Protein 1
Amino acid sequence: MPEVLKIHKLDNVAVALKPLSAGQKVTVDGEEITLSQEIPAGHKFALEELAAESTIIKYGYSIGKAAAPIRKGEWVHNHNIKTALGEILQYEYHPEHTQSLSLKQSEECHKFQGYRREKGLAGIRNEIWIIPTVGCVNDVAKQIERLGKEYLTDNRYLSDKIDALVAYTHPYGCSQLGDDQSNTQKILSGLINHPNAAGVLVLGLGCENNSIEEMKKQIGTYSQDRVKFLVCQEYEDEIEQGLAYIRELIDYASGFQREAIDASELIIGLKCGGSDGFSGITANPTVGAFSDLLVAEGGTTILTEVPEMFGAEIILMDRCANEELFHKTVSLINDFKQYFIDHKQPIYENPSPGNKKGGISTLEDKSLGCTQKSGDAIISGVLKYGEPVKSKGLMLLSAPGNDLVASTALAASGAHIVLFTTGRGTPFGSPVPTIKIASNSTLAKTKKNWIDFDAGRLLEGMTLQQLSEELFQLVLETASGKKVKSEENGYRDIAIFKQGITL
């Protein structure tokens, strides 16, 4: 593995691929540079003399300004670099950029073994989900989950055909107003309608704002065999009634069989968290190349975490399929910035302490690496928070950067799987299989109980094409039933975006 990497020909910083010592000599573009300080792995150093206020270039774009003069060979990090981003910005539509892009189409036609649901949707898991309408019944949901799992070892219920029985608890559904209540309803109805759930028990209390009757309005048409509703206040023993519904749902779900389905029906969420200086070099480009492969076959990918588009948004805007999508993307960005302003918080609080320790210095630095998960495809749609996918191609989804909130939003919009890149490591699991992709091989080796895929091999001789094709195969295997680490560990949670007051 090389010691250093200059990512783009225009860059005036390079990245250390391993820890480098003060006084060590490295060669970049044929020029020998003596390092004046220790450079941790994943961190940057200057390739030329940089005056204060000079633009720092990485990935071929600005990642900020020099906060002080920086000498050639000096460590470049948050002690001597600052963001150059503004707040609400005006953007110009450049149709010539999109016209120069071609919508790649593949002659490949991969398949996976999935489940065909009644509405024609494809699922990749045959699970039973318990969805509370309100946090007051969380413990009831967990009790029904615990007792209901006993049926999964009882042959009378054909339970060997059920992949999992899970209660997705949350603290909301009452004492909420406006957008908060709407967000709760959108996310819960998205999960209720998700094709990975063969059967769903919707569990209400009976006096909450987000009542079952209100949820039915959000869910739309549904099969009474697939979705059962239980209002706890209406039964003497809600646990007994809940278990009766679980037995009915197991019986119904056991009738589904896996069958061959085109990969073009897959919807894959793209997310990163606990990023480091390698994320934008290895894991995110690998996911981006995968995204291009799937989109070329007619499939769908969804990029989210809007605050981590700040600083790279123009690159995305220039890939919008038409002017309408361009304006939707502008609103996506500026509306989220306004959210920070309205709450009197700095727009550019990112990166996190863990990001900084891993080598990411500014939000521009983080965003330019983050958005590489979108590959090079044309952007075909822009989704509001909680809005389901209704078309094919690469989508942008409004959601914050928080790992679990964003991953839940991806699932609620229809993602069958979430590809989650990380340089620091994280154990969590979302409502759908969450494939953890390490940006460096050290993490992949030390956290084998968390990590499913090692993208660090890109620096060890493997090509981007090889890794993206291998990741494609892992996605197909996962869609066909292979459990990922978070599933094996039993890690599954949801989180819902909260913006307003609580009564």
Protein 2
Amino acid sequence: MLSRYADIPQVRIAGPTLVLVGLGLIFAPLLNGQSISAAEKVLTWAGCGISKKAFMSEIATAYEKKTGVKIDLKGGGATKGIRQVASGKVNIGGSCRDLIHTENGISPIPPERGVRMQPVAWDALVIIVHKDNPLSDISLKQIRQLYTGKITNWSQLGGNNAPVELYIRKGKISGVGRSIRELVFQDFDQEFVARHIMPSSGPLEKGIAKNINGIGISGFSSARKRDVKMLKVEGIEPSFAMIKDGGYMLYRPLYLVTPMRAKKDEEIAKFVAYVRSEEGKIIIRNAGTVPFEDAIATWLKMLKTRQIAVGQ
């Protein structure tokens, strides 16, 4: 079972008040060589590819056009996004998972301290297969059996007599890998049995798109832009509408990660405010992603599910 949910209060609808920290444009100290230059007007962003595909590319383009400030998107995964903001290597991060906490469940582990997680949108975990796979639906029980090696042939899922080739993310703390363990297994230490172990969600999605026997889990915001089929889960199809109203069960927030220090950085604050503004929300919606404040039902359902998980 999960040992902590101390970070739940961070996932709340909190209006425009932001605790933003970082470097000032003028007289800015160096962040391991990453000072923000007033002349260049560049903010560096690192984070999960799912966040990038969900809204960051569109937001970065619109923001540069509006303000002249370039958002340099580096990718690299949720863990990189969190930890490089914490270490001062980038200005802003993107994450599709919460912080990893210590055993007492109160404070983040050292590599992830000193950051603020600000939910700005919603994503969902989706089960993807090759577009020609005849399967259309899968249950949570079947997903657990699949990931623990109990289902090895498509005939066990009502499909053809062929071996199942499961694709998973490397390690246990990636955005998708940790979210699967949290939402499907309620166990962050759950081991998976798989033939294909991929370095990131992009190669995972591309691999399944080419493999008729492939199956795996990725983010809705990324997978919907690939040539793959997304399966229904317990009869519910993943979609913008189902994520927005809380009807689809495997959802999680997408965060902007910012430094948490006493002095605000004007340019970081301006960018985050833009993402959370009505103009920013329109861009997020037009990209096919649900802004965080649009999905109150989703937020309340997730909070209730987490409270049940810890016996509250």
Protein 3
Amino acid sequence: MSETSDDRRMAEQVRNMVQRAVQRSVKGLQFLTAGPAPVGLTPKDVVLSRGTLRLYHYRPLADEVYRVPLLMVMATTNKSFVFDLAPGQSMVEFLLKSGFDVYAIDWEPPTADERNLDLATYTQDFIPSCVDCVLERSGEPDLSIVGYCMGGVLSLIYAATHTDGPLKNLACLTTPVNWHGMELTRKWSDERYFDVDSFVDTVGIVPADFIAQGFEMLRPAQKTAGRIRVWEQMWNDEFVKSYRAFERWGNETLPLAGEYFRQTTRELLWRNGLMTGSLSVGGIPVDLSRITVPVLHAIAEHDHICPYEASKPLLERVGSTDKEEIVLKGGHVSLIAGPNAVKRMWPRLAAWLAERSV
């Protein structure tokens, strides 16, 4: 009996299934015994180091560079290498090759002596120190800032309290303004049941595990689902490489200074101070309408940490005339890193900045 095309097709499918099963077993053992994924490989120099603060300057990858340097501000809960996961999967690398002079703020775990760091420390001391360093090294009079998540909140506070400063452009990525829009986070931290003062006074430094568990409670099955996906894709080297980098980033959640956590919980999450205009840092009122520089806000369509209701009001609150909102497919992290980011967000961000960086 002669072999039909259907027989050949079925035989090929069986061979592929067997081959992938073998690869999954072999590579699964390699996955379990491998060390931490290599991340943050784009060449850089530490140009400022003070306490929990680190400022990186990335070495150029383009022959011609835009005049206006770029400062990236990371959320205080995580390491900045999510901006630079791996070659070919790095926002920093993409921006460097697009002709930008890139700096990034990174955070180290605060020590017990740094338990009193607060919003004023970050927005009136750390960020201004980095801005001064960038301008001094670049020789330029102004700069652009890109803030991610809570890094975007800190950037907004800085911008609103330094309106005569050197900020030229501000891009915020998945940045919450209406904190009452983060309904599930508010439920976990309901002020009727959570005594934040007693908690902070007891621990001093909020443990990284406490922060990480808070994120996991927003989507309890996410970690398990991710492990199932990586097992199914274990034969796919690129998928596994990306997964290991993301997993490392998620596992290296940072602890938080107690006073910073207390103030964020009280003034932002409970009182919604950024939305209502009642927030004050270091005695300085934070009025977002005082921000008049060009503003870009990128929102993730399926963001479980910063939902659309939390991020939507940003452009309504700033006083800028040049402002743009983009809503892109993806989640809180995949908006800025991963295959979708490479195709969607990075080119949009680079094009927006390019028009305003000459």
